[in-house]
Amino acid sequence: MTYQAQYEKSIQQPELFWAEKAADIPWYTKPSQILGKDEFGTDRWFIDGELNTCYAAVDYHVENGRGDQIAVYYDSPVTGVKKSITYKELQTEIATFAGGLAAKGVGKGDRVIIYMPMVSEALVAMLACARLGAVHSVVFGGFAPHELAVRIDDAKPKAIISASCGIEIQKVIPYKAMLDKAIELAEHKPDFCVLLQRPQEKAELIEGRDYDWQSLVAGAEPVDCVSVKATDPLYILYTSGTTGKPKGVVRDNGGHAVALKYSMKAIYDMNPGEVFMAASDVGWVVGHSYIVYAPLLAGCTTVVYEGKPVRTPDCGAFWRLIEEYKIKAFFTAPTAFRAVKKEDPDGLLLKNYDISSMKNLFLAGERLDPPTFHWLQELVGVPVVDHWWQTETGWAIASNQMGIEPRPAKAGSATVPTPGFDVQILDNKGNQMPAGEQGSVCIKLPMPPGCLATVYGDPQRFQSSYLSTFDGYYLTGDGGYIDEDGYVFIMGRTDDVINVAGHRLSTGEMEEIIASHDGVAECTVIGINDELKGQLPVGLVITKDGYEGDDATLEAELAALVRKEIGAIACYKQTIVVDRLPKTRSGKILRGILRSIADGKSYQVPSTIDDPASLPEIESVMADHNIGVAGKAV
Ligand code: COA
Ligand code: AMP
Questions:
Q1: Rounded distance between C-alpha atoms, residue 175 and residue 387, angstroms
Q2: Burial class (CB in 10 A: 0-12, 13-18, 19+), 634
Q3: Would you identify the family this protein belongs to, as annotated (predicted)?
Q4: 178-207 confidence digits (pLDDT tens)
Q5: Whose CA is nearest to atom 4 of ligand 2?
Q6: Per-residue pLDDT tens over the stretch 570-585
Q7: I need a labelling partner for 492 at 20 to 30 A (CA). Which of 106, 118, 125, 413 fits?
C-alpha cells in the first residue's frame, strides 16, 4: 500500500485502520470497541481491550522463540561496562524486581517515580512497573531536587526507584543526595525507596525507608504480568508547559503499544531481530518510546548508552556504536550531531569505522537545521530523516515514512504527516491556511492511538492547554507550514517553551525563579539561537529601585539560582539588565514580540502597546548583545 493510500485510510476510516494495526499486539482480551470517549469526552482507543505492555514487549517474545535473542545491549563508556541481556534474561530480571516491588505493596494503579541514570536497570524498573500495572513516572536525572519534588507532590508515588549516582563526563552526579533533598522538600513522602548501588559512589541508606536493589531482588519471588485495560495509564511523563508547574502527560497501555509497534515498521523500517538505537535518555519521551518500549514491542534489540556523542572518549562515539552493534536505525537529537560536527567538521573519525549496517539516520527533538542536515547527508550516505514529535504525542507526527514509501527529503522539513495524524495549519481564527503560509500547527481530532490521554490529575488543564483554542483540534504549540507537495515545516514554538540541547524547558518557570531574587522587580526570559544547543535562555531583567548590586553579580546569582532550582541542563547564564520592557496597556509583557526580535523576525506592533518607544529601545539593547539584530517592526 502506498503512503497516500495508507494515510487516506487512516484519516477517513480511522477505526478500520487501527483495528487492523491492533491485531499485531498480543491482547489478553481483544478490543471490540476501537474508538470511544471517556467521561471527559476525550477520544480513547481500544476501550474494552485488555493487555499487559510488559508481556507484549518481553514475555511474548520469549514464548515465541526470541528468548535467546539479545534484547538490550548496555554500553557505558563512562564506567567501562558493557552488557548483553537476552529476552529471557530480561524477563527474569523484570519479573524478579517486580516481585520485590509487589512484596513491598506496589500494585495496579500505584505510581512509582524512577530517577535513574542511563543504566539497564532503569528499563527493568520501568517494565517491572508495567508488569504490575503500576504507573511509572521517570524523572530525568539532570533535574535538580526542586524539580523532582514538584513531580513527587503531583504524582504522589508509593515508591521511588533511584541509583546512588550517575556519571557525566568526568564527574559523578550524586543522585542519592538529590533524592534525599527532594523528599525533604516534597510534602508527599513515598512509602519506600529502592537504590541501585553503583561502585563509583555508594549511597548511605536510610533505615526503614531505603532498600538496596540487590537485596530486594535476592529475596524476591518472580511475578507474572497483570492484565490491565487498554485505557489504564502506563506512565506519566512530566513536560514543560508555559508555567512553573510541569504537565504530567498520561500515556495509556493499549493505544501506546499499537502505535509504537506500527511506527517501528512504518517510520523506522525495522523488523524483528534487527538492532535499533536511540541516543537519548530514559527521562525524555524519546527514551520512553524508542529506547524502551517500541524496539522491544517489535522484537528488536535496543542499545542503552551511558555516554555522550563527544568526549566519551571522543566524537567518534556514535560511529563506534553503529559498527559494534550493527545498528540498522540510529536516532538522536540534532544538537548531538552539531557537537560532533564542531569537533570533527570533516568527519575524519568516521573513516575508522564501518557503519554499513546503518540504513537510516533519524533526528528529532528540535528542528534539524539545514547545514547540519546537509553535513550529515554527505557524511553518512544514507537517508537522513528529520521527524517531528512531542512528549504529548509519544511518536512522530510527521516523518519520512521509511517503511512505507520513502520520499526525497527537503532540508528543514519533517516530510509528511504520519498515518493517523491529520495535520492542518490554522490562522488565529481557526481557518485553514493555504499551502506555503505559516500558521499554528494543529491536529484534527481524533488523534491517533499513543497520544496523551490527559494531564495527570488535571483534566481541565488538558482541555485548556490543548483542546480549547480551536474547536475539534489539538494545538501542538508549534508554528509552521505545509508546502505544495504536502511537506510539513516546523518553524518553532509559539508559546513560552524553548528547546536547549534537545531538552524542553519552560521560560515561564525560569521567570518565576528569577523573579524570586531580591533585586528583581520584573523579568522575562526568551530563547536565543545558539549554534550548538539550538537555543539558550536569556533573561531581560528590571532591577528594583534601590537595588545596589552590580549587573555581573546579579547575572551570576541568577545563573546559580536557576541551576539550583531546575538543574544544570537549563544552561541559564546570560542576564541583561534593562530599564523597561515592552508591555500592553494592561501591563502584559509582549513576550511574542521579544521572541520575534530575538529570532530576527519581523513583527506587528500591537495597537494595545503601552509605549511604542519601548520597542526600538529594547531592540537596540538586544542588538548591543548581538541578539536578533535583524528584528524589525513592520
Ligand atoms: N544528569 C546530570 N547532569 C546532567 C545530565 C544528567 N543526565 N545531563 C546533562 N547534565 C548537565 C551537564 O553535565 C552540564 O553540566 P555543567 O553545566 O556543570 O557542565 C549541563 O547539564 C548541561 O548539559 P548539556 O546541555 O547536555 O551540555 P554538554 O556540554 O554537557 O553536552 C551535548 C552537549 C550536545 C553533547 C549534549 O547536550 C547532548 O548529547 N545532547 C543530546 C540531548 C538529547 O539526547 N536529548 C534528548 C531528546 S531526543
Ligand atoms: P519534546 O516534548 O521535548 O519532545 O519537545 C517537543 C518540541 O520540540 C516540539 O513541539 C517542537 O517544538 C520541537 N521539535 C521536536 N522535533 C522537532 C523537529 N523534527 N522539527 C522541529 N521541531 C521539533
A1: 33
A2: exposed
A3: Belongs to the ATP-dependent AMP-binding enzyme family.
A4: 999 999 999 999 999 999 999 999 999 999
A5: 390
A6: 999 999 999 999 998 8
A7: 118
